[in-house]
Amino acid sequence: MTPVQPRKILCLTLEPLTARMAGPAIRCLELGRQLAQEFTVTVASPCQVPVGMELAKQSGFTVCAGASRSEILKLAGEADILFIQGNVLKPFPQLVELKKYLVIDLYDPYLFSLLNQYSENPATASASYRLMHQVLEKHMLACDFAICASERQRDYWIGRFCALGRLDPRVCQIDPSLRKVVDIVPFGLSDVAPVKTGPAMKGVIKGIEPDSQVLLWTGGIWDWFDPLTIIEAVARCHEELPQLKLFFMGMKSPNPQVPLMPMAEKALKMATDLGLLDKSVFFSQAWVKYEERQNFLMEADAAVSAHFDTIETRFSFRTRILDNLWSNLPTLTTGGDQLAELISVHQAGIAIPYNDVGGWAQAIKTIVTDRDFNERCRKGAHELAQRFTWSESARPLIEFCRNPHHLPPFQRIKMPSLLERANAVYSRGGKELILKRSKDLLNDMLR
Question: What pTM does this model have?
Fold first, then answer.
């Protein structure tokens, strides 16, 4: 008897798969790693890889970085299941025509980010939002299954699916809970504890000494983030805590198509104007390599992340905060998003109100001077981390790939005809109900 071959899965991202990766590429790679335990997996990206930035060879699955259009379409044609992120159909609309099982990753509700990113440029904001709105709609109408990062996000996406008319009676009959339409696959973290492989900041970067107290900003500086409040709070703490240092791990996305954002420039200017640049506030111009991030995390005294009171915050899932939990690092963060709530509940750090410089200054003083409190936060971070391992997070995606299904073809919602309405009334109450409702039906026909 011929053994059954494992299903082939193509995981496709538009982010660079290199030694330096942002959240979407990390997520695609790590979920591919989990899928590869049961399936034949290829993780691919069309982004070219700069010389010397090649991703380390992966075990158990294939990485195809810098793939040409023809290579990607060939891989897609050979696959049984396509797992793509929510912008892939823009350059590769042909993937829908292949009629493969199609899974869409909606963990990043990027339309909300666009509202912030181009707030000072109305023309760009309008054009970008309308374009990506159409791109997102195409993905949602074509997919057989979608994943997101949290229950709060899932409520949002169910609302969007419903508004698009995708959740019609045929779809709901497949699964009244709608878990077979959209389910939760949070961003994850490694099941293996981090191991320090070399020095990163202390005693390496000029101005950061071995006895410095380091606050670590672990991701990029995007326009929907608020590094300015933290920089101002560090300035307030400078006299009392002269060894306090704030280090930003990355200024610009490793994706060459993503420009340096205005907020990064504002942060750099504020640090300069306050006389803190390269004294108390430091910026890494190069994005920290993915396989070296633990060296920075394990040298820090606490991690920081701040954002504004926007709709983006409510539905966000701050992916790089999970690295803080992985390394048992206390987190100081603005409240308002779901991870901030979990950090408060599990005592893994401190959630601070929006734009509260004084609150940030006090939280910073507490986290770096109260060693008992810092240690309690580290224990809370460790406990919370157990909820977000990749092996746990990936379960709904793996289950779909074990038992894939196609959703019924999408049909745009139209008003029912008079005959359809009459048939519906008859099916509920026969001729008697038809007679009772005949006046309403006739009035609708004459309108």
Answer: 0.89
